[in-house]
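During the second year of the project, the team shifted from modelling isolated chains to modelling whole assemblies. The rationale, set out in the original proposal, was that interfaces cannot be judged from single-chain predictions alone. As a representative example for this report, we include one of the complexes processed in the last quarter. Its constituent sequences, exactly as entered into the pipeline, are reproduced here:
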Amino acid sequence: GAGVSQSPRYKVAKRGQDVALRCDPISGHVSLFWYQQALGQGPEFLTYFQNEAQLDKSGLPSDRFFAERPEGSVSTLKIQRTQQEDSAVYLCASSPGGSGELFFGEGSRLTVL
Amino acid sequence: RKEVEQDPGPFNVPEGATVAFNCTYSNSASQSFFWYRQDCRKEPKLLMSVYSSGNEDGRFTAQLNRASQYISLLIRDSKLSDSATYLCVVNKGDDYKLSFGAGTTVTVRA
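Output from the structure prediction step:
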């Protein structure tokens, strides 16, 4: 497709399970971002990739969160030993360069029971 | 203090009305400013960038006041389709890192 694609759209996990969320950015976009959006809040920055290099992971809430983009295109956000406070929408965005308009995917809505 | 603060609203206005709202930002080094629109349970989409001199895009007008560190958005001749949450977005000084406000909800009624 032409836009940013994320999967799964919805994920229900039991507390303690590991989850993996996938992002397929717009072809050719160098920059890829992950954001976390809690209900009623704006998106919060998690991490940033330029091609395959993870240049900033300062927003990852804990060491249970891990992101990768090994070939500079598809990215995976992994959350280990999920907790209830991890419940949120995880948004992936890409852009042609490091600044300017972000193109978001529809998000992966994670619910941890 | 949050980096970007917005009046959450909701602003309930009739079709054809003008609605305006602001957001304030805390980082005086911020250089880039945007308004994004987010429909219910959908992803944010860029509405417009905000330039120092102020700018218009059809019925939408954005203003930036660097001295007071606030940004405004004005919507003229509101349409039902303008109902959405409007996110104020500011960069943190690093080009790539954006801070989002919690959003202002606008509901336009027939």
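The two ends of chain B are 37 Å apart (CA to CA). Chain B touches chain A at residues 4, 8, 32, 34, 42-46, 87, 91, 94-103 (CB under 8 Å).
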